[in-house]
Design a protein that fits this description.
Layout: H1 3-6, H2 8-27, H3 33-59, H4 72-81, H5 99-111, H6 116-125, H7 135-143, H8 147-156, H9 162-180, H10 193-196
Helix pairs in contact: 2-9, 3-4, 3-5, 3-9, 5-8, 5-9, 6-7
Length: 197
Amino acid sequence: MTDLQATLRFHLRRKTADLHHRLDTHIGAFRTRVDYGRYLQSAELFRRLAEPELTAASDEGWFGDWRPGLVHDALAADLGDCGLEPAPGVEQILALADPAAAWGALYVAEGASLGANILLQSAEAIGFSATRGARHLAAQSRRSTPWPRFTALLDSRTDLDPERMVDGARMMFETALACFDPATGSSNPSTKLAAFA
């Protein structure tokens, strides 16, 4: 086992740090209900694109007995709570063609649970909760507990190409950025956001 293979999670963290920073910048904190509505629309779009790929990879048996945390249905319900429509689609750039790329993408998806507690607190401060408008954040917060088990499984996959894992992780971050980056237009407020405020 090489040093690289023994620390796959840290290799992925280093190789995706630039994209992770950009995504964190675009998500930020929710200071207003309009901020939160914009976030919900972008998050729902991202999960709409990502979760079918993760589900297909799981169905292929690529993740063993690990099941991805799926929150799209909760996001759709949160949008409904807020009277918002889903954002228009963007081009699908995520294609998980092999187990290594799928594990890299899964690393990004599961890692989202780590910041969910902070986001949930921000959502609660502007009037949302685990039963109205912030269901998906509550669900992701509950996923943070298995993170050590997930990273142990990830680090054990020394049979997989680390650079293909990086490719999958970067594809996942790039998909998220396509949904959250205002430059794409997808995360601009919908016509309903003004009324939502």
